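User: C-alpha coordinates for this one?
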Amino acid sequence: MNIKPWRTDLKRWLELPPQVADGKVISTSRHHQVQALDPKTGEVLWTADCSDEILESPKLVGEDTVLVQGQEGGQGSFYGIDLQTGQTRWSHSFEPRWKMDDIEMPNGNVLLRRTELAGEAEEPMFQVLSPSSGETLWSMAPQSEKWGYPVVDDKNRIFVELRGTENRESVMAVDGESGEKLWTREGTVWGQPRPMGDRVLIANRSEVTVLDSSTGQVAWQLEAPIVRDPWILPDTVVTASLRPDEAPGNRLTGLDAETGEVKWHYDVPHLTGVIAGPSGQMIHHAFKTDKHGQRQSYIHALDTRTGEGLWSYELGAAELGDVGVDSQGRVTVELEKGKESELAVFKDGKLLWQRPVEGQGFALAGNAERMAIFDRQGVTLVDAETGGFRDQVCLNAVLTNFDGKVGAEGEMVVSGIDGEIAGLTLEGAQTVMGATFKTPGPLRHYRYPFEATEDGFIYADVEEDGKFIPGDDALFLKNSVQPGDHQVAPDKSKVTPEELAKWDADNNGYLSREEMNRANISLWWDRDGNGEVSSRDGLVSMSGEGRRQAVVDLDNSKLEVRVNRFS
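Assistant:
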Protein backbone atom coordinates (compact mmCIF):
# COMPACT_ATOMS: atom_id res chain seq x y z
CA MET A 1 0.00 0.00 0.00
CA ASN A 2 1.66 3.22 -1.22
CA ILE A 3 0.65 6.11 1.05
CA LYS A 4 2.64 9.35 0.79
CA PRO A 5 1.42 12.13 3.13
CA TRP A 6 2.76 15.70 2.87
CA ARG A 7 1.91 19.15 4.20
CA THR A 8 2.79 22.68 3.00
CA ASP A 9 2.00 26.13 4.39
CA LEU A 10 1.17 28.50 1.52
CA LYS A 11 0.86 31.41 3.99
CA ARG A 12 -2.32 32.67 2.33
CA TRP A 13 -5.99 32.39 3.14
CA LEU A 14 -7.38 29.33 1.38
CA GLU A 15 -11.16 29.27 1.35
CA LEU A 16 -11.94 27.13 -1.70
CA PRO A 17 -11.34 23.38 -2.06
CA PRO A 18 -8.08 22.44 -3.84
CA GLN A 19 -8.34 20.35 -7.00
CA VAL A 20 -6.25 17.52 -8.47
CA ALA A 21 -5.82 18.05 -12.22
CA ASP A 22 -3.62 15.97 -14.51
CA GLY A 23 -0.76 15.39 -12.07
CA LYS A 24 -0.96 18.74 -10.27
CA VAL A 25 -2.75 20.11 -7.25
CA ILE A 26 -4.43 23.44 -8.04
CA SER A 27 -5.10 25.64 -5.03
CA THR A 28 -6.44 29.17 -4.82
CA SER A 29 -6.76 31.93 -2.30
CA ARG A 30 -10.05 33.79 -2.39
CA HIS A 31 -8.21 36.86 -3.61
CA HIS A 32 -6.43 36.73 -6.94
CA GLN A 33 -3.82 33.94 -6.61
CA VAL A 34 -3.79 30.43 -8.09
CA GLN A 35 -0.97 28.01 -7.29
CA ALA A 36 0.04 24.62 -8.67
CA LEU A 37 1.73 22.07 -6.40
CA ASP A 38 3.38 18.72 -6.90
CA PRO A 39 0.84 16.13 -5.61
CA LYS A 40 3.65 13.86 -4.34
CA THR A 41 5.60 16.43 -2.31
CA GLY A 42 3.54 19.62 -1.96
CA GLU A 43 6.25 21.69 -3.67
CA VAL A 44 4.88 24.89 -5.25
CA LEU A 45 5.44 24.71 -9.03
CA TRP A 46 4.00 28.06 -10.10
CA THR A 47 1.85 30.98 -8.95
CA ALA A 48 -0.54 32.99 -11.13
CA ASP A 49 -2.22 36.33 -10.32
CA CYS A 50 -5.79 36.71 -11.59
CA SER A 51 -8.88 38.59 -10.54
CA ASP A 52 -9.35 40.52 -7.32
CA GLU A 53 -11.73 37.81 -6.09
CA ILE A 54 -11.91 34.21 -7.31
CA LEU A 55 -15.43 32.84 -7.07
CA GLU A 56 -14.91 29.07 -7.23
CA SER A 57 -12.19 26.46 -7.36
CA PRO A 58 -10.29 26.46 -10.68
CA LYS A 59 -10.83 23.43 -12.90
CA LEU A 60 -9.06 21.74 -15.79
CA VAL A 61 -10.63 22.22 -19.23
CA GLY A 62 -9.27 20.76 -22.46
CA GLU A 63 -5.93 19.02 -22.10
CA ASP A 64 -3.91 21.60 -20.20
CA THR A 65 -5.88 24.76 -19.43
CA VAL A 66 -6.94 25.80 -15.93
CA LEU A 67 -10.19 27.79 -16.00
CA VAL A 68 -10.54 30.46 -13.30
CA GLN A 69 -13.73 32.45 -12.70
CA GLY A 70 -13.45 35.72 -10.80
CA GLN A 71 -14.72 39.22 -10.29
CA GLU A 72 -13.34 42.70 -9.73
CA GLY A 73 -15.75 45.35 -8.56
CA GLY A 74 -18.89 45.03 -10.69
CA GLN A 75 -17.07 43.15 -13.46
CA GLY A 76 -16.80 39.38 -13.94
CA SER A 77 -13.96 37.51 -15.62
CA PHE A 78 -12.71 34.18 -16.93
CA TYR A 79 -9.02 33.30 -17.19
CA GLY A 80 -7.42 30.45 -19.11
CA ILE A 81 -4.08 29.51 -17.48
CA ASP A 82 -1.47 27.10 -18.87
CA LEU A 83 -1.40 24.08 -16.54
CA GLN A 84 2.33 23.49 -17.04
CA THR A 85 3.67 27.05 -16.69
CA GLY A 86 1.02 29.12 -14.92
CA GLN A 87 1.06 31.70 -17.73
CA THR A 88 -2.26 33.37 -18.58
CA ARG A 89 -3.24 32.28 -22.10
CA TRP A 90 -6.41 34.35 -22.39
CA SER A 91 -9.00 36.25 -20.39
CA HIS A 92 -12.53 37.56 -20.89
CA SER A 93 -14.29 40.29 -18.94
CA PHE A 94 -18.00 41.08 -18.78
CA GLU A 95 -20.57 43.10 -16.84
CA PRO A 96 -22.44 42.54 -14.60
CA ARG A 97 -20.22 40.20 -12.63
CA TRP A 98 -22.90 37.47 -12.24
CA LYS A 99 -23.63 37.40 -15.95
CA MET A 100 -22.06 34.08 -16.99
CA ASP A 101 -22.01 30.48 -15.75
CA ASP A 102 -19.56 27.94 -17.13
CA ILE A 103 -20.52 24.31 -17.82
CA GLU A 104 -18.12 21.42 -18.39
CA MET A 105 -18.22 19.70 -21.79
CA PRO A 106 -16.75 16.23 -22.49
CA ASN A 107 -14.72 17.56 -25.45
CA GLY A 108 -12.99 20.07 -23.15
CA ASN A 109 -14.54 23.20 -24.63
CA VAL A 110 -15.87 25.88 -22.30
CA LEU A 111 -19.63 26.41 -22.50
CA LEU A 112 -20.79 29.78 -21.14
CA ARG A 113 -24.45 30.28 -20.39
CA ARG A 114 -25.63 33.84 -19.97
CA THR A 115 -27.71 34.27 -16.86
CA GLU A 116 -31.17 34.87 -18.24
CA LEU A 117 -31.72 38.27 -16.59
CA ALA A 118 -28.22 39.66 -17.29
CA GLY A 119 -27.04 41.64 -20.28
CA GLU A 120 -28.73 42.95 -23.41
CA ALA A 121 -31.32 40.97 -25.37
CA GLU A 122 -29.08 40.58 -28.41
CA GLU A 123 -26.18 39.06 -26.47
CA PRO A 124 -25.64 35.29 -26.79
CA MET A 125 -27.57 32.77 -24.76
CA PHE A 126 -24.72 30.27 -25.22
CA GLN A 127 -21.10 30.90 -26.12
CA VAL A 128 -18.52 28.12 -26.57
CA LEU A 129 -14.82 28.95 -26.16
CA SER A 130 -11.65 27.14 -27.12
CA PRO A 131 -9.89 26.19 -23.85
CA SER A 132 -6.43 26.80 -25.35
CA SER A 133 -7.03 30.22 -26.97
CA GLY A 134 -10.27 31.52 -25.47
CA GLU A 135 -11.60 32.25 -28.98
CA THR A 136 -15.34 31.89 -29.57
CA LEU A 137 -16.05 28.67 -31.49
CA TRP A 138 -19.77 29.35 -31.79
CA SER A 139 -22.53 31.27 -30.09
CA MET A 140 -26.31 31.12 -30.04
CA ALA A 141 -28.76 33.99 -29.80
CA PRO A 142 -31.53 33.83 -27.18
CA GLN A 143 -34.21 31.35 -28.22
CA SER A 144 -36.76 32.51 -25.63
CA GLU A 145 -37.24 35.16 -22.99
CA LYS A 146 -35.88 32.89 -20.25
CA TRP A 147 -33.85 29.71 -20.17
CA GLY A 148 -32.74 27.20 -17.58
CA TYR A 149 -29.37 25.69 -16.66
CA PRO A 150 -28.28 23.34 -19.50
CA VAL A 151 -27.10 19.75 -19.22
CA VAL A 152 -24.58 18.14 -21.57
CA ASP A 153 -24.43 14.45 -22.51
CA ASP A 154 -21.31 12.39 -23.28
CA LYS A 155 -21.57 13.27 -27.01
CA ASN A 156 -21.56 17.02 -26.34
CA ARG A 157 -25.26 17.48 -27.03
CA ILE A 158 -26.73 20.32 -24.98
CA PHE A 159 -30.27 20.18 -23.57
CA VAL A 160 -31.93 23.22 -22.04
CA GLU A 161 -35.36 24.22 -20.83
CA LEU A 162 -36.85 27.32 -22.51
CA ARG A 163 -39.58 29.47 -20.97
CA GLY A 164 -41.38 31.97 -23.18
CA THR A 165 -44.41 34.25 -23.03
CA GLU A 166 -47.66 33.05 -21.44
CA ASN A 167 -45.68 30.41 -19.52
CA ARG A 168 -45.04 28.38 -22.67
CA GLU A 169 -42.25 25.87 -22.06
CA SER A 170 -40.13 23.65 -24.26
CA VAL A 171 -36.88 21.69 -24.36
CA MET A 172 -34.23 22.50 -26.96
CA ALA A 173 -31.33 20.28 -28.05
CA VAL A 174 -28.15 21.79 -29.53
CA ASP A 175 -25.13 20.14 -31.16
CA GLY A 176 -22.30 21.19 -28.87
CA GLU A 177 -19.68 20.79 -31.59
CA SER A 178 -21.27 23.08 -34.19
CA GLY A 179 -23.88 25.10 -32.31
CA GLU A 180 -26.60 23.80 -34.63
CA LYS A 181 -30.07 23.51 -33.13
CA LEU A 182 -31.10 19.84 -33.37
CA TRP A 183 -34.74 20.03 -32.27
CA THR A 184 -37.25 21.71 -29.98
CA ARG A 185 -40.13 20.00 -28.22
CA GLU A 186 -42.92 22.02 -26.63
CA GLY A 187 -44.51 21.04 -23.36
CA THR A 188 -44.25 21.60 -19.64
CA VAL A 189 -40.90 20.59 -18.17
CA TRP A 190 -40.35 19.66 -14.53
CA GLY A 191 -36.73 19.80 -13.43
CA GLN A 192 -33.93 19.46 -15.98
CA PRO A 193 -33.64 17.18 -19.01
CA ARG A 194 -31.82 13.94 -18.05
CA PRO A 195 -29.44 12.36 -20.59
CA MET A 196 -29.46 8.54 -20.67
CA GLY A 197 -27.14 7.23 -23.40
CA ASP A 198 -28.47 8.24 -26.82
CA ARG A 199 -31.73 9.33 -25.29
CA VAL A 200 -32.90 12.10 -22.99
CA LEU A 201 -35.62 11.95 -20.35
CA ILE A 202 -37.94 14.84 -19.60
CA ALA A 203 -40.67 14.73 -16.99
CA ASN A 204 -43.48 16.73 -15.46
CA ARG A 205 -46.03 15.92 -12.81
CA SER A 206 -48.23 13.93 -15.15
CA GLU A 207 -45.89 12.09 -17.53
CA VAL A 208 -42.42 10.77 -18.26
CA THR A 209 -41.14 11.07 -21.84
CA VAL A 210 -37.95 9.62 -23.32
CA LEU A 211 -36.73 11.16 -26.60
CA ASP A 212 -34.06 10.33 -29.15
CA SER A 213 -31.25 12.78 -28.33
CA SER A 214 -30.43 13.59 -31.97
CA THR A 215 -33.93 13.86 -33.45
CA GLY A 216 -36.30 14.56 -30.56
CA GLN A 217 -38.57 11.69 -31.62
CA VAL A 218 -40.46 9.94 -28.84
CA ALA A 219 -38.92 6.58 -27.86
CA TRP A 220 -41.52 5.94 -25.17
CA GLN A 221 -43.90 7.81 -22.92
CA LEU A 222 -45.74 6.98 -19.73
CA GLU A 223 -48.60 8.94 -18.21
CA ALA A 224 -48.15 8.81 -14.45
CA PRO A 225 -48.71 11.28 -11.59
CA ILE A 226 -45.21 11.49 -10.13
CA VAL A 227 -44.06 13.50 -7.11
CA ARG A 228 -40.28 13.62 -7.72
CA ASP A 229 -37.81 13.65 -10.59
CA PRO A 230 -37.27 10.07 -11.83
CA TRP A 231 -34.02 8.25 -11.08
CA ILE A 232 -32.04 6.78 -13.96
CA LEU A 233 -30.34 3.50 -13.01
CA PRO A 234 -28.63 0.93 -15.26
CA ASP A 235 -31.43 -0.54 -17.47
CA THR A 236 -34.16 0.92 -15.22
CA VAL A 237 -35.95 4.23 -14.72
CA VAL A 238 -37.54 4.56 -11.26
CA THR A 239 -40.45 6.91 -10.59
CA ALA A 240 -42.06 7.90 -7.28
CA SER A 241 -45.77 8.62 -6.87
CA LEU A 242 -48.25 8.71 -4.02
CA ARG A 243 -49.50 5.32 -2.89
CA PRO A 244 -52.78 4.37 -4.63
CA ASP A 245 -54.28 3.08 -1.38
CA GLU A 246 -53.95 6.60 0.10
CA ALA A 247 -51.72 5.26 2.86
CA PRO A 248 -48.82 7.55 3.90
CA GLY A 249 -45.69 7.14 1.80
CA ASN A 250 -44.76 6.54 -1.82
CA ARG A 251 -45.01 3.95 -4.54
CA LEU A 252 -41.79 3.20 -6.46
CA THR A 253 -42.25 1.99 -10.05
CA GLY A 254 -39.47 0.39 -12.08
CA LEU A 255 -39.65 1.04 -15.84
CA ASP A 256 -37.61 -0.71 -18.50
CA ALA A 257 -35.19 1.99 -19.71
CA GLU A 258 -35.39 0.74 -23.33
CA THR A 259 -39.17 0.36 -23.74
CA GLY A 260 -40.83 2.15 -20.80
CA GLU A 261 -42.61 -1.06 -19.83
CA VAL A 262 -43.63 -1.27 -16.16
CA LYS A 263 -41.52 -3.99 -14.52
CA TRP A 264 -42.57 -3.70 -10.88
CA HIS A 265 -44.12 -1.61 -8.09
CA TYR A 266 -42.89 -1.31 -4.52
CA ASP A 267 -44.58 0.65 -1.70
CA VAL A 268 -42.41 2.47 0.83
CA PRO A 269 -42.96 4.92 3.71
CA HIS A 270 -41.76 8.49 3.25
CA LEU A 271 -39.05 8.35 0.55
CA THR A 272 -35.89 10.46 0.89
CA GLY A 273 -33.71 9.17 -1.97
CA VAL A 274 -32.61 6.46 -4.41
CA ILE A 275 -29.16 5.49 -5.76
CA ALA A 276 -27.79 2.66 -7.90
CA GLY A 277 -26.44 -0.10 -5.67
CA PRO A 278 -24.00 -2.96 -6.30
CA SER A 279 -24.75 -5.93 -8.61
CA GLY A 280 -28.03 -4.69 -10.08
CA GLN A 281 -29.42 -3.45 -6.77
CA MET A 282 -31.23 -0.21 -6.07
CA ILE A 283 -30.70 1.36 -2.64
CA HIS A 284 -33.52 3.56 -1.41
CA HIS A 285 -33.70 5.38 1.90
CA ALA A 286 -36.81 6.56 3.67
CA PHE A 287 -38.30 7.13 7.11
CA LYS A 288 -41.21 5.80 9.12
CA THR A 289 -43.04 7.53 11.95
CA ASP A 290 -43.21 5.65 15.24
CA LYS A 291 -46.08 5.73 17.76
CA HIS A 292 -44.58 8.83 19.38
CA GLY A 293 -44.49 10.72 16.06
CA GLN A 294 -40.67 10.47 15.80
CA ARG A 295 -39.01 9.82 12.44
CA GLN A 296 -37.13 6.53 12.16
CA SER A 297 -34.80 6.24 9.14
CA TYR A 298 -33.84 3.11 7.26
CA ILE A 299 -32.16 1.95 4.03
CA HIS A 300 -33.44 -0.85 1.82
CA ALA A 301 -32.10 -2.73 -1.22
CA LEU A 302 -34.26 -3.86 -4.16
CA ASP A 303 -33.50 -6.01 -7.20
CA THR A 304 -33.95 -3.58 -10.11
CA ARG A 305 -35.06 -6.40 -12.45
CA THR A 306 -37.90 -7.75 -10.29
CA GLY A 307 -38.56 -5.18 -7.54
CA GLU A 308 -37.92 -7.87 -4.95
CA GLY A 309 -36.75 -6.65 -1.53
CA LEU A 310 -33.24 -7.93 -0.73
CA TRP A 311 -32.31 -6.46 2.63
CA SER A 312 -33.17 -3.63 4.98
CA TYR A 313 -31.47 -1.91 7.92
CA GLU A 314 -33.03 0.32 10.57
CA LEU A 315 -31.00 3.46 11.32
CA GLY A 316 -33.04 4.93 14.16
CA ALA A 317 -33.74 8.60 14.75
CA ALA A 318 -30.68 9.92 12.87
CA GLU A 319 -31.27 12.03 9.76
CA LEU A 320 -29.81 10.55 6.58
CA GLY A 321 -27.32 12.65 4.64
CA ASP A 322 -25.51 11.39 1.56
CA VAL A 323 -25.41 7.72 0.48
CA GLY A 324 -22.70 6.13 -1.67
CA VAL A 325 -21.54 2.78 -3.06
CA ASP A 326 -17.91 1.75 -3.61
CA SER A 327 -16.38 -0.62 -6.14
CA GLN A 328 -16.41 -3.48 -3.61
CA GLY A 329 -20.17 -3.32 -3.10
CA ARG A 330 -20.03 -1.55 0.26
CA VAL A 331 -22.86 0.92 0.93
CA THR A 332 -21.85 4.06 2.84
CA VAL A 333 -24.35 6.25 4.70
CA GLU A 334 -23.94 9.64 6.36
CA LEU A 335 -25.94 9.89 9.59
CA GLU A 336 -26.58 13.39 10.94
CA LYS A 337 -27.11 13.67 14.69
CA GLY A 338 -27.61 17.30 15.56
CA LYS A 339 -24.37 19.10 14.74
CA GLU A 340 -22.40 15.87 14.49
CA SER A 341 -22.12 13.28 11.74
CA GLU A 342 -21.33 9.58 11.64
CA LEU A 343 -20.32 7.29 8.81
CA ALA A 344 -21.98 3.85 8.65
CA VAL A 345 -20.73 1.20 6.21
CA PHE A 346 -22.79 -1.84 5.12
CA LYS A 347 -22.22 -4.87 2.95
CA ASP A 348 -24.90 -7.39 1.94
CA GLY A 349 -27.26 -5.83 4.47
CA LYS A 350 -24.88 -6.12 7.42
CA LEU A 351 -23.32 -3.25 9.32
CA LEU A 352 -19.53 -3.52 8.96
CA TRP A 353 -18.65 -0.52 11.12
CA GLN A 354 -19.71 2.93 12.25
CA ARG A 355 -17.60 5.87 13.43
CA PRO A 356 -17.99 9.62 14.07
CA VAL A 357 -16.56 12.24 11.73
CA GLU A 358 -15.39 15.69 12.73
CA GLY A 359 -18.13 18.28 12.29
CA GLN A 360 -21.03 18.36 9.88
CA GLY A 361 -20.35 17.28 6.33
CA PHE A 362 -17.58 15.14 4.94
CA ALA A 363 -16.45 13.29 1.81
CA LEU A 364 -15.30 9.73 1.23
CA ALA A 365 -12.87 7.97 -1.12
CA GLY A 366 -11.13 4.61 -1.06
CA ASN A 367 -9.87 1.42 -2.65
CA ALA A 368 -10.36 -2.26 -1.82
CA GLU A 369 -8.38 -2.04 1.45
CA ARG A 370 -8.68 1.52 2.75
CA MET A 371 -11.27 4.27 3.04
CA ALA A 372 -10.25 7.92 3.25
CA ILE A 373 -12.56 10.20 5.23
CA PHE A 374 -12.31 13.92 4.42
CA ASP A 375 -13.56 16.03 7.33
CA ARG A 376 -12.63 19.10 9.40
CA GLN A 377 -9.50 17.37 10.76
CA GLY A 378 -8.02 16.50 7.36
CA VAL A 379 -7.90 13.04 5.76
CA THR A 380 -8.19 9.93 7.93
CA LEU A 381 -7.40 6.49 6.51
CA VAL A 382 -9.28 3.53 7.98
CA ASP A 383 -9.51 -0.18 7.21
CA ALA A 384 -12.34 -0.57 4.69
CA GLU A 385 -13.73 -3.74 6.29
CA THR A 386 -13.38 -2.88 10.00
CA GLY A 387 -13.13 0.93 10.21
CA GLY A 388 -9.94 0.61 12.24
CA PHE A 389 -7.56 3.59 12.19
CA ARG A 390 -4.57 3.27 9.82
CA ASP A 391 -3.16 6.76 9.14
CA GLN A 392 -4.05 10.45 9.15
CA VAL A 393 -2.87 13.75 7.71
CA CYS A 394 -4.15 16.73 9.73
CA LEU A 395 -4.11 20.52 9.52
CA ASN A 396 -3.81 23.11 12.25
CA ALA A 397 -6.64 25.25 10.81
CA VAL A 398 -9.97 25.62 12.56
CA LEU A 399 -11.79 24.73 9.34
CA THR A 400 -10.80 22.68 6.31
CA ASN A 401 -11.69 22.81 2.60
CA PHE A 402 -12.27 19.55 0.75
CA ASP A 403 -14.35 18.14 -2.09
CA GLY A 404 -13.50 14.43 -1.92
CA LYS A 405 -12.36 14.22 -5.54
CA VAL A 406 -9.47 11.85 -6.26
CA GLY A 407 -6.79 12.18 -8.93
CA ALA A 408 -6.00 9.56 -11.57
CA GLU A 409 -3.26 8.04 -9.41
CA GLY A 410 -5.23 8.23 -6.15
CA GLU A 411 -4.08 11.72 -5.10
CA MET A 412 -6.28 13.52 -2.57
CA VAL A 413 -5.85 16.94 -0.94
CA VAL A 414 -7.36 19.24 1.68
CA SER A 415 -6.51 22.81 2.63
CA GLY A 416 -6.84 24.79 5.83
CA ILE A 417 -8.55 28.13 5.88
CA ASP A 418 -5.37 29.80 7.20
CA GLY A 419 -3.03 28.57 4.48
CA GLU A 420 -1.97 24.97 5.06
CA ILE A 421 -2.50 22.37 2.35
CA ALA A 422 -1.96 18.65 2.82
CA GLY A 423 -2.33 15.55 0.70
CA LEU A 424 -1.56 11.90 0.24
CA THR A 425 -1.65 9.30 -2.51
CA LEU A 426 -3.73 6.15 -2.05
CA GLU A 427 -3.19 3.96 -5.08
CA GLY A 428 -6.37 2.87 -6.82
CA ALA A 429 -8.61 5.13 -4.73
CA GLN A 430 -11.84 6.49 -6.20
CA THR A 431 -14.47 8.93 -4.98
CA VAL A 432 -17.25 7.19 -3.05
CA MET A 433 -19.21 10.17 -1.68
CA GLY A 434 -18.81 13.74 -2.82
CA ALA A 435 -18.40 16.49 -0.27
CA THR A 436 -21.52 17.48 1.62
CA PHE A 437 -19.80 20.66 2.83
CA LYS A 438 -17.27 22.42 0.61
CA THR A 439 -16.31 25.79 1.99
CA PRO A 440 -15.87 27.04 5.54
CA GLY A 441 -17.59 30.42 5.02
CA PRO A 442 -19.42 32.60 5.42
CA LEU A 443 -16.66 35.21 5.47
CA ARG A 444 -16.68 38.82 4.38
CA HIS A 445 -13.75 40.14 2.39
CA TYR A 446 -12.51 43.61 1.63
CA ARG A 447 -9.70 44.48 -0.75
CA TYR A 448 -8.56 48.08 -0.55
CA PRO A 449 -5.97 49.90 -2.65
CA PHE A 450 -3.27 51.69 -0.66
CA GLU A 451 -0.40 54.13 -1.27
CA ALA A 452 1.74 56.71 0.46
CA THR A 453 0.25 60.19 0.73
CA GLU A 454 2.18 63.45 0.60
CA ASP A 455 3.25 63.05 4.21
CA GLY A 456 5.09 59.82 3.26
CA PHE A 457 2.94 57.37 5.21
CA ILE A 458 0.67 54.60 3.96
CA TYR A 459 -3.11 54.82 3.96
CA ALA A 460 -5.66 52.29 2.65
CA ASP A 461 -8.64 53.68 0.73
CA VAL A 462 -11.36 52.46 3.11
CA GLU A 463 -13.89 54.89 1.67
CA GLU A 464 -13.08 53.49 -1.80
CA ASP A 465 -13.42 56.88 -3.41
CA GLY A 466 -10.02 56.85 -5.13
CA LYS A 467 -8.57 59.31 -2.61
CA PHE A 468 -6.28 58.73 0.36
CA ILE A 469 -7.36 61.15 3.07
CA PRO A 470 -6.00 61.05 6.64
CA GLY A 471 -8.99 60.87 8.96
CA ASP A 472 -11.18 59.07 6.42
CA ASP A 473 -8.93 56.18 5.47
CA ALA A 474 -6.99 53.50 7.34
CA LEU A 475 -3.40 54.09 8.44
CA PHE A 476 -0.64 51.53 9.11
CA LEU A 477 0.81 51.88 12.62
CA LYS A 478 3.57 50.02 14.46
CA ASN A 479 2.29 48.29 17.58
CA SER A 480 5.41 49.27 19.57
CA VAL A 481 3.83 52.72 19.89
CA GLN A 482 0.21 52.59 21.01
CA PRO A 483 -2.26 55.08 19.51
CA GLY A 484 -3.02 57.79 22.04
CA ASP A 485 0.40 57.47 23.73
CA HIS A 486 1.30 61.18 24.03
CA GLN A 487 4.82 60.45 25.31
CA VAL A 488 5.89 59.63 21.75
CA ALA A 489 5.30 61.84 18.73
CA PRO A 490 2.42 60.36 16.64
CA ASP A 491 4.47 60.43 13.41
CA LYS A 492 7.01 58.00 14.86
CA SER A 493 4.35 55.27 14.96
CA LYS A 494 3.36 55.55 11.30
CA VAL A 495 4.64 53.12 8.67
CA THR A 496 6.43 54.14 5.46
CA PRO A 497 6.47 52.18 2.16
CA GLU A 498 10.13 51.30 2.73
CA GLU A 499 9.35 49.75 6.09
CA LEU A 500 6.45 47.78 4.68
CA ALA A 501 8.61 46.31 1.89
CA LYS A 502 11.40 45.47 4.37
CA TRP A 503 9.13 42.94 6.13
CA ASP A 504 8.76 40.90 2.92
CA ALA A 505 11.39 38.36 4.00
CA ASP A 506 11.00 35.99 1.05
CA ASN A 507 10.87 38.93 -1.40
CA ASN A 508 7.77 37.62 -3.19
CA GLY A 509 5.83 40.88 -3.15
CA TYR A 510 3.30 39.60 -0.60
CA LEU A 511 3.22 39.99 3.18
CA SER A 512 1.79 36.69 4.38
CA ARG A 513 0.11 36.10 7.75
CA GLU A 514 3.43 34.94 9.17
CA GLU A 515 5.29 38.02 7.91
CA MET A 516 2.56 40.32 9.19
CA ASN A 517 2.88 38.73 12.61
CA ARG A 518 6.63 39.43 12.65
CA ALA A 519 6.06 42.99 11.45
CA ASN A 520 3.86 43.65 14.52
CA ILE A 521 1.80 46.39 12.89
CA SER A 522 -1.89 47.23 12.95
CA LEU A 523 -4.30 49.06 10.73
CA TRP A 524 -6.20 51.99 12.28
CA TRP A 525 -8.60 54.58 11.01
CA ASP A 526 -9.89 57.76 12.58
CA ARG A 527 -13.43 56.51 13.08
CA ASP A 528 -14.57 59.44 15.26
CA GLY A 529 -13.18 61.99 12.79
CA ASN A 530 -11.27 64.07 15.34
CA GLY A 531 -8.05 64.04 13.32
CA GLU A 532 -6.23 61.75 15.76
CA VAL A 533 -5.86 57.99 15.97
CA SER A 534 -6.94 56.91 19.45
CA SER A 535 -8.12 53.85 21.33
CA ARG A 536 -11.69 54.76 20.40
CA ASP A 537 -10.98 54.28 16.70
CA GLY A 538 -11.21 51.18 14.53
CA LEU A 539 -8.65 48.37 14.38
CA VAL A 540 -7.90 45.48 12.03
CA SER A 541 -5.59 42.93 13.65
CA MET A 542 -2.67 41.88 11.46
CA SER A 543 -2.10 38.66 13.38
CA GLY A 544 -3.38 35.22 12.45
CA GLU A 545 -5.82 35.30 15.37
CA GLY A 546 -8.91 37.37 15.97
CA ARG A 547 -12.14 38.10 14.15
CA ARG A 548 -10.53 40.59 11.75
CA GLN A 549 -7.35 39.76 9.88
CA ALA A 550 -5.34 41.40 7.09
CA VAL A 551 -2.47 40.69 4.72
CA VAL A 552 -0.75 42.90 2.14
CA ASP A 553 -0.19 42.46 -1.60
CA LEU A 554 2.82 44.71 -2.24
CA ASP A 555 3.06 44.11 -5.99
CA ASN A 556 -0.53 45.21 -6.63
CA SER A 557 -0.72 47.77 -3.78
CA LYS A 558 -3.76 46.09 -2.25
CA LEU A 559 -4.70 45.42 1.35
CA GLU A 560 -6.76 42.23 1.95
CA VAL A 561 -8.99 42.23 5.02
CA ARG A 562 -11.04 39.24 6.14
CA VAL A 563 -13.85 39.60 8.66
CA ASN A 564 -14.20 36.25 10.36
CA ARG A 565 -17.72 35.47 11.55
CA PHE A 566 -16.78 32.53 13.72
CA SER A 567 -14.91 32.67 17.00
